[in-house]
Design goal:
- The chain is α+β, with helices and mostly antiparallel strands.
- The protein has one domain: Lipocalin (Beta Barrel).
- Helix content is 24%, strand content 37%.
- The strands form two sheets. It has an eight-stranded antiparallel beta sheet. The chain has a two-stranded antiparallel ribbon with strand order 9-10.
- It is globular, with a radius of gyration of 24 Å.
Length: 161
Amino acid sequence: MKKIYLLFALLLPLAFACKTANPVQTATETETILDAYWMLLSIEGESPQAPNNTRTAYLRLQESENDIKGFSGCNNFFGKYTLSGNSLSFSNLGSTRMMCPDMEQESRFMNVLERVTAYSIADRILTLYEGNQAIATFKTGNPEDVEQRTPDGKIIIKDFD
């Protein structure tokens, strides 16, 4: 009887060890870009300057409905995105219509989004491309991670090395 219990005690762990393991799924850039807040760092090679008492522009790609939503510096914006591998495009972009002190920067931001054809991510930095040309960069995180205020209250984008 002891031999049966001993045999059973030895075989039981083996039965559970023979379970087929599921393959490990690695995170892809497509998974990383979605449902994160991407704070604007640069647009066409220049660091944007947020007007006093405003927030930094950001975007968010929502996975559930292929919606893009965000803030362009003064107005909220919305639209749709198409994502396939590293290809990315935005369509049906619209925004609220508040008058802003710097409409030029806001228009420039929206124009850049309309031209996006691809993206890449490295070290929490999202780069948007038009063809092979980088046209905007973003950093994932909270506004506090990206913005700093000068003594006179102006919001500027922190430098990243």
